[in-house]
Design goal:
The protein has two domains: about 40 residues, no CATH class; about 210 residues, 3-Layer(aba) Sandwich (Stationary-phase Survival Protein Sure Homolog, Chain: A). It contains eight helices and eleven strands. It has a nine-stranded mixed β-sheet with strand order 3-4-2-1-5-6-7-11-8, sandwiched between helices. The protein has a two-stranded antiparallel ribbon with strand order 9-10. Strand 9 and strand 10 form a beta hairpin. The radius of gyration is 24 Å and the shape is globular.
């Protein structure tokens, strides 16, 4: 504060009389600096998603994040579910500043969720370190194998690749009017914990909430990703031109009976928290295939 006052204080010490307009200008300038300093003292939280910038889930997440830090939103301008870690390389990307959330800087992006994170880091916030990236709240579960298809988790994972602490939040409810209120205190606690703990730079958490009232939530379980999969089926049809088209459908099959998995946690009314990462190396197989190095052609 004093460094902004110093020039005027020196003037007053010399006995020089300042005009009213000069004094008003000084205090207006000082107030702006104080607002800036207050804003900069808060953690910077990037919010994104894959359901689009007008989805109820991201609105709920923005409101929660705004209680903890300074929020900047960069999110897709349309639904981008199941885009995985796709990026846009053959078309130009568009960024547009929008007024979607009261008092929150928000940008809509023409690309994928991962594009949003890349543009946030390198364009929108290029001169500022991001303290936390949160993605969601997704309409629908991203437990188990769903993490590899999810645009929500891929956005958070992209932030993790950049060394940013990140969390992907999902609610096991696909409806547009899903109730995110039971998740609110848990989301805020998890964000605060992620910001305060040491040694978590680049850490990624996959957090899923069961679709139940707040009073029925049994607590939080740190667990592993269940060994489950989708058994797909394609429904064939014909367009007006007689050409075939296919709609993907499928059934989710859980082949993992372990009580330490995210699927078990959700079925038993717990919030599942799975620490995840982008390193896809199969370390269990690594030592067993070293004999491949002896092959010759």
């Amino acid at each position: 504060m004093l460094q902004y006052c110093h020039p005027v204080l020196k003037t007053l010490k010399k006995g020089i009389t300042l005009s009213k307009s000069t004094i008003n200008l000084f205090f207006k300038y000082t107030l702006k600096q104080l607002v800036y300093l207050c804003r900069m003292s808060k953690p910077l939280i990037l919010v994104t998603n894959d359901d689009g910038i007008v989805a109820p889930g991201i609105r709920a997440l923005v409101e929660m994040a705004a209680r903890i830090g300074e929020v900047v939103v960069v999110a897709p301008d349309s639904p981008q579910s199941a885009k995985g870690h796709a990026i846009t390389i053959h078309d130009p990307l568009r960024l547009k500043k929008v007024q979607v959330f009261d008092g929150i800087e928000a940008w809509e992006c023409s690309g994928t969720p991962v594009d949003c994170v890349k543009l946030a880091k390198h364009v929108v916030l290029k001169d500022r370190p991001i303290d936390l990236c949160v993605s969601g709240i997704n309409h629908g579960s991203n437990a188990s194998i769903n993490i590899i298809y999810s645009g929500t988790l891929s956005a958070a994972m992209e932030a993790s690749v950049e060394g940013i602490r990140s969390i992907g939040f999902s609610l096991d409810d696909f409806s547009f009017d899903a109730d995110f209120r039971p998740a609110q205190p848990w989301v805020e606690q998890l964000m605060s914990w992620m910001l305060q703990e040491n040694g978590l730079d680049g850490a990624l958490l996959n957090v899923n909430f069961p679709k139940i009232p707040a009073a029925q939530i049994q607590g939080l379980r740190v667990c592993r990703q269940a060994n489950a999969r989708w058994v797909e089926n394609f429904i064939e049809g014909r367009d007006p031109g007689g050409r075939p088209y296919y709609w993907l459908t499928g059934e989710f099959i859980n082949e993992d009976e372990g009580e330490d998995t995210d699927i078990w946690a959700l079925k038993n009314n717990y919030i599942s928290v799975v620490p995840s990462k982008h390193d896809l190396t199969n370390y269990g197989l690594l030592e067993n295939i070293t004999s491949l190095q002896n092959l010759t052609v």
